[in-house]
Design a protein that fits this description.
Length: 311
């Protein structure tokens, strides 16, 4: 939203100028009509002219003041524009530097970039979605968890730390219970990647897409509200999926063809209710499972069940 200028507007200056001119004209006319006639007409007329001249001079002084105010307006506008341009350059430089840090091959430098972006978003609300988009893009980068690698890899462990820091930053700023640091109306797009220990609890998100994403170890969306839309189409939960009291907006949350290989719990319904589409979703049989209202499971294969809607 564009900031409202505090400088004196041209319209205000014009209206004051017109008003002063009208007052001067009316004063001259009145003085001439009422003081310029009768006995000793010449003397009265002279006095009227003197008074009118004083008024005209006063109006001229007021006009000069208005011209000075107009110049002051232009000075203020120029200063505001310079301050705005300087702030935009600062934001651009900070954003560019942080983005470069995220691309570093050194984990400490990448961590510095994450925290720099967090501070930028906290100080500049209109850039928050842009910062979140960049953090989401970082999480979408190809990644193999350390446990899935054939041998210990220090670089992979450091990358795991950076990614979990990104996730922690997003969770910390999506909790409406902490208004001083809450970022409202944020969209998340983290698709086609692998997320470990993904915590998004007691948060509020406008829209989120996790299509084709693998959630390893645990994914916790407990008590989180998606105000418009949530898309988990063909996501895979290899560990625990905690969706207790997760609330979804007016559109049905898309869990079509989602795979649950670990424990899954939707828990009790949130107060606002929720609408979920689990068509084609399957789950492992050797797990604990709790489905949302309106859905139940049926045998599928020897070690899996499929989720179907209630009749």
């Amino acid at each position: 939203m564009r900031a409202v200028s505090k400088a004196l507007s041209s319209r205000t200056i014009v209206w004051w100028s017109v008003g002063l001119a009208v007052v001067a004209a009316v004063a001259v006319t009145v003085l001439w009509l009422f003081l310029g006639g009768g006995d000793e007409a010449s003397a009265h007329r002279l006095d009227a002219l003197r008074t009118a001249a004083s008024l005209v001079l006063g109006a001229g002084g007021a006009a000069a003041l208005l011209l000075a105010a107009r110049r002051q307006r232009y000075v203020e506008l120029d200063l505001e524009q310079k301050e705005h341009d300087a702030n935009e350059r600062r934001v651009t430089e900070l954003y560019g530097k942080a983005a470069d840090q995220l691309g570093s091959d050194k984990a400490p430098v990448r961590l510095a970039g994450v925290y720099a972006l967090e501070r930028l978003a906290q100080d500049e609300p209109r850039h928050r979605q842009t910062v979140v988009n960049l953090l989401c893009a970082y999480l979408r980068m190809p990644y193999t968890p350390p446990k899935a690698r054939p041998q210990q890899d220090e670089a992979a462990a450091q990358e795991q730390l950076v990614r979990m820091t990104v996730q922690d930053v997003m969770e910390a700023h999506l909790r409406p219970a902490e208004p001083d640091v809450f970022w409202p109306d944020i969209d998340l797009t983290i698709t086609g990647t692998t997320l470990e220990f993904f915590w998004l609890r007691n948060c509020r998100v406008r829209k989120a897409s996790f299509r084709h994403t693998t959630f390893a170890e645990i994914a916790a969306f407990r008590d989180t509200e998606f105000t418009e839309n949530a898309d988990f189409h063909r996501a895979c939960f290899t560990g625990t999926a905690d969706l207790r009291r997760a609330a979804f907006g007016p559109r049905r949350a898309n869990f079509r063809n989602t795979v649950f290989d670990g424990d899954v719990e939707f828990g009790e319904e949130p107060e606002a209710g929720r609408s979920v589409d689990l068509t084609g979703a399957t789950a492992a049989t050797d797990t604990t499972r709790g489905w949302p209202a309106g859905w139940h499971e049926e045998p599928d294969t020897a070690d899996r069940v499929r989720v179907v809607p209630d009749a």
